[in-house]
Amino acid sequence: MESTATYQDRPTGQAMTRGAKLRCPACGEGRMFTSYLKVADHCPDCGEALHHQRADDGPAYLTILLVSHIAAPILLASYVAWRPSAITMLIVFSLGTIVSSLVLLPIIKGGFVGLQWARRMHGFGE
User: Fold this and answer.
1) Does the residue 16 lie in any domain?
2) What range defines the domain where residue 90 resides?
3) I need a labelling partner for 55 at 20 to 30 A (CA). Which of 16, 33, 64, 69 fits?
4) Cβ neighbour number for residue 115 with a 10 Å cutoff
5) pLDDT tens, position by position, for the chain (126 residues)?
C-alpha cells in the first residue's frame, strides 16, 4: 500500500477556481479547453497532462440543477408580479435558460477537472 505522504498536497479550492476560470488547474495560466468543451491533452504553458479527466455527465447534471433552481423561483415571481402572456414567458425563459446553461457548462466542467486534478483522480496522481 502506497503512502499518501509521498505526494505533495494540491489545494482543491485553488485548483477548482482555476478550472472554473477555464485555466489549467496546475499553473492557472494555460487555457484548459481547445474548443467549447474539449479539454486540451496538455497545458500549453506548464505541460501538465489534462487528458486524464473524466468529467462525463457530472457538469451537465449540475448545470441543469443550478439553472432550474434559479429559473423556477424567478419564473414564479415574475408571473405573480407582472402576469405576462404565456408566449412572453415561454420566449424569455427559454432563451434565459439556454443562454445561462451554455455559459455555466464550461465553467462547471473546468471546476470538475480542477477537482479531479487536485484529488489525483483518474490518473492525475501518476
Assistant:
1) yes
2) 7-118
3) 69
4) 19
5) 454 555 678 999 999 999 999 999 999 999 999 999 999 999 999 999 999 999 999 999 999 999 999 999 999 999 999 999 999 999 999 999 999 999 999 999 999 999 999 999 988 877
Roughly what angle, to the nearest 10 degrees, separates helices 12-20 and 86-118? 140
50 domain residue, yes or no: yes
The count of domains in the chain is 1
Cβ-based burial of 25 (10 A; exposed 0-12, middle 13-18, buried ≥19):
buried
In this structure, is residue 126 part of a structural domain? no
Cell 477537472, located at residue:
113
Place of cell 503512502: 3
